[in-house]
Amino acid sequence: MTEENFDTLKTQVEDFVVELIDRSSLDLKVIVTAPEPETIEVSFQGFDLPLLLGHNAELLDALQYIARRAFAQAVADGVQIDFDAGGYREARRQELDLMAQKAAERVKLTKVPFVFDPMNAQDRRIIHTALVDIEGIRTESEGDGQTRRVKVLPA
Amino acid sequence: MKELVELIARSLVDHPGEVRVKEVEGPQATVLELRVADGDLGKVIGKQGRTARALRTVLNASGMKLKKRFVLEILE
Predict the structure, then answer these.
(1) DSSP per position, B20-64
(2) What residue segments make up the domains of chain B, in order of their start?
(3) Is the minimum CB–CB distance between A26 and chain B shorter than 8 Å?
(4) Under CATH, what is the fold of the domain B2-75?
(5) Inter-chain touch B58–A63, beta carbons under 8 Å
(6) What is the complex's ipTM, to 2 decimals?
(7) Residue A73 is part of a domain; what is its CATH number?
(8) In terms of residue numbers, what domain contains A96?
């Protein structure tokens, strides 16, 4: 994608999200940046941040999903569209990392498999990645769709 | 709320001109009836209903702000 096309896309994404938030009556300010080439980051500030981040950021993820579907062609062409707010993604990553380490220690000690609560693909991936180099255990995912969850097993 | 569903649906489908949303006021909730072109049904429902679920999540959040309940019905 040329720089010009990317800039046009970024503006289109911004206009779409601003209108989406406006029509949702949500009290949020939309900030759109391009922290890396081919990456559009949409973040939010404002009164309704708790609404956006409640229930493991269900609303933030829903908006991100809708935007990625709405700009599916650009996503297929390699553009990344990421939604974040109040440092949520990094905080969540650290939380999942800690959960992963604790689960791994427990499975190593007890030799009993540990099953996490269902998580979305992004969160499951963080768990798998966190434990990929830990000896004595292995991870896999089980279940379908909304109930898919990570399982930690003795190796 | 009609405008919100229209915006999202139009952004997802191949035939945005054929998106129709009807708002039906009920005693408990407002029902939003969404109609799209035949070939676009999958676009608003998504794999395992994921797109429809995302739409409902946005509607619920908006409903909380407006202190109203909204129900999305996707009509064939």
Answers:
(1) EEEEEE-SS-EEEEEE--GGGHHHHH-GGGHHHHHHHHHHHHHHH
(2) 2-75
(3) yes
(4) GMP Synthetase; Chain A, domain 3 (3.30.300)
(5) yes
(6) 0.96
(7) 3.30.300.20
(8) 91-154
CB A75 within 8 A of CB A68: yes
Other residues' Cβ atoms within 10 Å of the Cβ of residue A122: 14
Mutation target among A26, A52, A55, A66 for the B interface, most CBs of B within 10 A: A66
CB atoms within 10 A of CB B65: 14
Amino acid (one-letter) located at A4: E
CB contact under 8 A, B12 and A69: yes
pLDDT along chain A (155 residues), means of 10: 94 98 98 96 97 95 98 97 97 97 97 96 96 96 94 96
Cβ contacts (< 8 Å) between B57 and chain A: which residues?
58-59, 62
Nearest C-alpha of chain A: how many angstroms from B32? 14
- The model's pTM is 0.91
